[in-house]
Amino acid sequence: MYKPFRTAAVLGAGIMGAQIAAHLANVGLDVLLLDRPSEGKNKNARGEQLFKTALKLNPTPFFTEKIPRRITLGNFDEDLHKLAEVDWIIESVIEDLQIKQELIEQVEKVAREDGIISTNTSGLSLKKIIAGRSDSFRRRFLGTHFFNPPRYMKLLELIPTKDTDPQVLERIKWFGRVHLGKGIIIAKDTPNFVGNRIGNYDLMPGILHGLTKQDYTIEEVDFLTGPLVGRPKSATFRTADLVGLDTVTRILDNVYEAIPEDESREIFRTPPVLRKLVEKGALGVKSSGGFYQKQGNKICVINPTTLEYEPPKPLNLGEEVEKIAKIVDVKERLRALYQEQGRAGSFFRQTILEMLAYSARRIPEIAENPADIDRCLRWGWNWELGLFEIWDTLGVESVITDMKTAGIKIPAWVEEMQLSGVSSFYKQHETITIPGLGLGYIPLETPKIYVFGQGYLPLETPADEISLAQIKTSPQRTLWSNTEAALLNLGDGVVLYEFRSHGNALTMKVITGLLEVIDLIEKQDQILGLIIGNEGKNFCVGLNLRDDLVELDKKFQELIQYMYYANKPIIAALHGQVLGGGWELAKTCSQVVAAAESNIGLVELSVGLIPAGGGLTNMIAVADERAGSELPQDIWPFLDRIFQAITSVKITNSAYEAQNIGFLSHDARIIIDAERRFYIAKQEVIRLYNEGFTPPPIRSSIMVLGNSAKARLEQNAYNWWQGGYMSAYDYHLIERLAYVLTGGDISEPTLVHENYLLKLERETFISLLAEVKTQERISYMLTHKSPLRN
């Protein structure tokens, strides 16, 4: 284990530098953020203004509102000497080689001898940046290419030079993964490294088709390069608008200049139309428009010929592509699109064949193996599948045949791979079961990637990450299943209940399945405890609104109580959205392990309901416990905070914010790297079991505050209603919420049994289900996937 960093400095307070500083502060570092000095008395004015811009960014780069306090602003003239006090210095000024060289020269004069220095560059030569620096400095220097926005993008490319101390590289690699939550790729000092070299190449076929060849409209290109093929909604042209057309132009110019020997160099030549857009100030979202422009309620599109904005044109891609778009599995969708004989299939085949071949030709120039290229595209560009995973999906043999037919240059190593009989880049896991160990068996899983000249090599997988996808390749690991859930063996006596319902919603099968599983593990002495989690987009989005909600809620309350008093520890491993009943489920568990990027909220009011799975009972009990006494004035602040969070239908920005609000307890385990959540949860099960886990005592005396507290809550809601911040029905719902939170028809503070509150929750929930406006809200949500404020 390496020593974690406690202090850092970021040089350059622009959008990228400020966000890197923000994420370092997110994970607990004290950060010095420096920028060029301003003229006048306040030399920090420029940095202060840039930092204000960062504070207004949406999505925010900060986990909570208090975190910016960990960042100290300064300037290069007055504060550069403070670099002698920090563990890690990150230079993040403009992508200009001379400016970076001059600043790095100044850094060497003041940095302490054991301080690590890195440059955040998207593709400049590190060798040139550190020209003239001492041997000692070179050993502590490397490239750290964060992808934008740094908080949210998983990819971090580390670029060592030939002089970088291996221990320095390993320390940054460890800290980046464990503490910053990054997926680490060790890149070579080549133009644009791995992620941007391949990612920017990917943008160009679409841009060329949409701007110069004009075989396809801009709208059609974005449709064909977005979610249809497992890529983000921003696709090609919207991505360029987000990055900034001036930035795209600068990147293309830089890479074109830097790769004179690249056989596909011409594809990086900036199209004249793109230069014209930059010249007229059409830079994308940071200006009045780019390829797209919002005009009132309409989104218009640039005409590449006239450079005027026009209403979007209907797609002319045929009916078959509409059917293909509805295929859920991305691999099946790609195979179907590849075979489609219309304009959509033609575009996909032409562009994907070029991209696959280009990526293969860049090995080993920019990366040693295909997996690094795929990880860069998944982690840095949000692709569902990397290029070589796509190649395997489409069939290696057939793709090579199609490349030859199209006259596309295939690298020699791929042809030799084909001749040797290797039919895929990735090799599925080989599982060997160690017999006789029952639930304690550990399969030997060896996911591999083909590397030319070396054959199949194991993919590097950190020991503290557990992949459910890998586990499910071994049938023996599935101990129980129904059509919407499964129980998986993680080894060492720990099992995991995985949701498999649509959207990971709480359906009757998920709920009854979990009841059955808890009963199963309580009877098995070799099982220490249970984890609830999954690898879907979200942990759980709440109750399935299409089910019979009366029966579903009844069964859900039964589950919640069964879980709360279970005889073995149950751990919730959270990530993504944790909404409504998903939160109630998690809050009931013995412990919570939450990825920092968990967005938690009680959103029932938006469908005309209140939480009724035991969540309100739990929060009332927790307010009583956290107050430290049963005096109403001590309990009130906690109760009011709960009320505010639920009535605002707030979904937290992070797990840390959820902790501040009270959605998560202060002893919840929050981890930055979401990939570690199952490993940490497994350790928590073992820890609690070894400590002699026992279920909590029955909550037979919970203090509720009665009518006076209810009146205070209702008065707040009445003011919001009269101020026009909510509808009359919103106010009615909030009245019913206040009724439950304060104990129903109780005149004064009173101790009650939890069963009383659970019944109160359920009765109120059922009464609301019968109301027409609630039914309208549920129907609207199911149809439009957005709330109705009736």
Descriptive overview:
This protein is an alpha/beta fold and 790 residues long. It has four domains: 7-186, Rossmann fold (3-Layer(aba) Sandwich); 195-419, N-(1-d-carboxylethyl)-l-norvaline Dehydrogenase, domain 2, CATH 1.10.1040.50; 426-458, no CATH class; 468-608 and 645-690, Alpha-Beta Complex (2-enoyl-CoA Hydratase, Chain A, domain 1). The chain is built from 31 helices and 23 strands. The protein has an eight-stranded mixed sheet, with helices on both faces. Strand 7, helix 7 and strand 8 (183-186) form a beta-alpha-beta unit. Helix 8 (195-213) packs antiparallel against helix 9 and helix 28 packs antiparallel against helix 29 (728-741). The chain is globular and about 80 Å long. It starts with 6 loop residues before the first strand and ends in a 6-residue tail after the last helix. The relative contact order is 0.06.
Supply database-style keywords.
4 domains; seven-stranded mixed beta sheet; N-(1-d-carboxylethyl)-l-norvaline Dehydrogenase, domain 2; Rossmann fold; 23 strands; single chain; eight-stranded mixed beta sheet; 790 residues; 44% helix; alpha/beta; 31 helices
